[in-house]
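Two proteins follow. First one:
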Amino acid sequence: MILMRKTNLLLLSLIFLSFHSYSQSTYLVGTSQVSIEPDQSLISLHLAGYGIPKEGRFTLQWIDQGVIPTVTAIGGSNEKLFIVSNNELFVLDSLQNKSIWGKKGKAENIISIAGLSRKLYGMNKNGELLATKINGGAKWEKICFVDHSVTLIATDGNKLFAANTNGSFWSADLSENKIEWEEIESINKTICDIRSITANNGKLYALTIEGTIYQCEPGNINSKWLKIAYRNGVTVKEDIGYIAFFRGRLFGVSKDNHLYCGEHRSEGNLSARSMAIKRNEKTVVIVNVDLCGLNESFTGPLKQEIFLKNHIPSQAVFLNFTHTHFAPVTQDLLTWQEHCQRPDSIYLNSIVKAGILKSIDNALKTMAPAELFFGRGSVDIGYNRSLKDHPELYDNDVDVVKVKYTEKQTESYLFLTACHPVFSTAGTLHYTISANYPGVARKLVEERTRTSNSLFLQGTAGDIDPKDDGEYITGEKLAKEVIAVLDRPMTQLNGAISFYLDTVKIPVSPWP
């Protein structure tokens, strides 16, 4: 249990403060926020912070698009969605007119379809691969024979994938003159009872009879299947029988012939927020990120990139994570199940990294003269979960920094307290992307003070959990105290900027 006072953390993070008085009390300060919400093309991500339920907490939910004709196969392309119904091929051009399915022609004995570029491929019951043009009527031509056991096909890039229900997978390069099939040994027969497959952006997806969706990267020889969704009975109750991509989004068809579009279940408030503070030639940047955490293997190169671009030393960049247990996994910690351990590389590098860098750039660009003020309050939102009978083992301080811009007549705020954002462990919120109570507190502070870009810093939370039932109660309490501190007299900060970073490495031996 760590009992370090979070006030020390604030001093270490803001360390531009000094006890010496200077005649000049103006700094250059800029703030910025950038969304780090996952893109819908990422389909489904696992939420960090809990190993319960052991089946996982995935972000996918299905949005009903209405009833469609009875489906025996579905496949999509960038522009069109196709289904086979009663040996007929139908096409949907736009979700704006999702009830209008155009008839393209016959699709006798076709059991699986997949669109790619200008062609639609089909697999029939005899193990034959067929193709027809996407535009115009259906005129199927035999391409080759695959295998009698193959029942499913998918396409991505120049690759064509085939599979059977027992979990055997093959791939073929469509850019070659002759199609030659090769087994994908790295993923063969590691999952079974496969009902449908599809592919997009270098990833292959498989839906099992039980309703579990797996993904892998077949182009990576070290890739293996990773669970990304399942029928949890809370946010995913639909019995999906077929999956396909259409315009970069995952679609599913249920056994009762409803078309669904997949999307992340989210409150929409994950962000990376930065505050840049400068005096003379020294600048520090404080970054508040709505994640459970990041590994040094990620933050080290990130800080190096910040230095090369903005000439700010790594010691002068303070990355603080709200530690919300409802952001996608971003650390490869060897805890709980495998889906808790493997961050999505696209989310990590294309969204999180880009969001942090952009928020820092924008904060540096918007720096303006400002005065800084400090105040401290207290809020009763937490308790020590390991020592419930010792309320004294809880630091309830709330530290607040006010940025008062001298020319723009506006303000920004930074506030810090220590308590785990762990709501809620039950119901739909357990599967919902959320910044949790820090997000609630920031929003209320901004609304009630008519400001923007407030930052929340997580202190040394240790074993401190919220005492109240709900992120809105805790967020409300914290926001009220922050505003109360702002309304009381605050101490103006003066002095030069300095910064320091140290790391304590504790020798440990991993458990088996």
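Second one, unrelated to the first:
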Amino acid sequence: MPFVRINDTRLHYRTDGAPTRPCVVLSNSLGTDLGMWDAQAAALARDFYVLRYDTRGHGQSERGRAPLSLADLGRDVVGLLDALAVPRAHFCGISMGGLTGQWLGIHQPQRIVKLVLANTAARIGTAEGWSARAALVRDAGMGGVADGAPARWFTQAFVERGTQQVRTMIGRLREQDPEGYARCCEALANADLRPAAGSIGAPTLVIAGDYDPVTTVADAEWLVQSIAGARLQTVPASHLSNVEAEPQFTSALVQFLAGAT
């Protein structure tokens, strides 16, 4: 399992496909790890060099220093691309990863070819809500957050199917480092890209879940209206749409990245 030290933080990453092909970076959501992208990585690796990583404080990546900002998360991606000698890449991020993608599109446009923003918004939640969640996990651990995650991440019908993937993801959330999770909550508390989202110039696909209570279709429509030329794709899912609506999500992702600019 490869690791690289970026910005004084040891990050875990994985690559699939030939490095001579165009690169696609996949960025996970809060409380998950790079395993959430297994289906998309398998589909993309036929034509792309797929680079996925555990956001700092998640999976096998170190939590790094405190405090943590969205800019730190974005600079981690730039450092990872530099370490692997990738000058430009497509980027697909979901939820927190989608905010990271927006930051890159705004502040590092020369590194981004195409941008996919999934189940995200220019502003997710409130500063008070994220600060309260950070305090909760520091005080009581990850149990309460993990107990409530299925209802936030998936529709009830999908949860009732009892798939192994859902059980695995909730189990990993329960085992998440509370301090790493809390620091990312604090980064989200201070992340508001609404004033700058309109400056994103990369071709952009916004994916929204029809039943997402966290980042709604209205949030996605706001991004599409703000980013010139952006297009919207909705899928029948809740917040982790790449898992719940995997065939539709993967198809939209592959077609967008493979299409002409």
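SUMMARY FIELD: Strands lie at 3-6, 9-16, 23-27, 49-53, 89-94, 112-118, 204-209, 231-235. Residues 74 and 100 are 5 Å apart (CA to CA).
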